[in-house]
Amino acid sequence: MSNKRFPSLRLLTRKRVLIPSAITVVAVFLLLSFSSHEFATVATTEVRQGPFQVSIKVSGELRAAQSFTMTAPRGRFAQTQIVYLIPEGTTVKTGDVVVRFATTEIDKVILDKEAELSLLKSDYKKLQADQESRMLDLRSSQRTSELALDQAQLQMEKVKFESEVARKEAEINFERSKLNLEQAKRRIESQQRVDRSEDMKARLKMQQVQSDLDRAHGEQAQLIMKAPMPGLVVYEMNWQTGRKIAIGDSPWPGMSIVSLPDLSRMQTVSNVNEVDISKVTDGQAAVVRLDAFPDKIFDARVSSVGTIGQQKDRASSNKTFEVVLDIEGRDPILKPGMTTSNEIIMATIPDALFVPMESVFEKGDKVVVYRVERGSPRPVEVQTGEKNSNFIVITQGLRAGDRVTLRDPTAEAAKPSAQGKQSPAEP
To answer: At 206, which helix (H) or strand (E)?
Structure first.
């Protein structure tokens, strides 16, 4: 029973004395105007008594509680064609190859960088050999200067008591040898600075090429995408082509390629109307049925309730809220994307009287049912309580075992007079 049909049910739960009204009198008159035979075809049902579940029914869609989305690699050589895709629906293990991209361009870059690096290493070895040879010559020259200085010093000692000319000549020779030694040391220091600079330049160049090579190898590895976790392969949508990802596509960097939902824990996502969302809370029990396999029923619990409403569609101003149900247990029949019919149980009344929603009618400011008495339906004012998608609780006016109609017999009785002739009620 929709709220539109009974907008004032909640106002009718207070206790009241049954006072005949003009509407009730007319209803009784119409009922008495026709024989029990004319009401024989009106369907009836028995007032039930027992546990009553306060619940709502909503549709939903299955998804994995945990899922990993594989995206196109980022890098200089990332936007390239897909050359291999594992078939959709395949269950993969960690490390299984899922997607391969063409590596022709990056393979050439790697070969070029490897050749360049090899040449640089060869040049560096030659540079080291040349530096070592020059340094040996310079150190040899320094040693010669040291010996010449020692010899000049001995000569000065030798001519100490000789003529002034001989002493002066020895001093000049000593100073010259000393100067030569200092120059030899300065040449070595200068050459060492040059060698260090050349060595640093050569090493830096090799490091740059090695870095380019390592990055190229890293991007080459990214072009072979492996499953980081077990899951079911589901292709993502390629918005460039308007269809799912396929071999031959060239996705942009970061674009979603494949998702791997973990089927060990499944959920169903529903949208609950804004009228009912206040009744739904975390932890409430639920029952989930697969639309494709109605015999498959699963227990579930509410795991999250949305806090922001979304417009149902452009033509309607009604808002809905996302509610996620965690399905208990595991079954290989559960697959992402399958539609479900979900019943969320808000409360259970241990003992209640209840009738189908179709049996309750609003007559003016009263709520009535039509109880069958001696073969004919009679209007009985009732007070209602909680309801679910199919039944409503009767708190006053009926007893267990009473039979009530499943539609308004006065509406059926009024049809013949309105049409100017009498016809049997519809079955």
So the answer is: helix 164-222
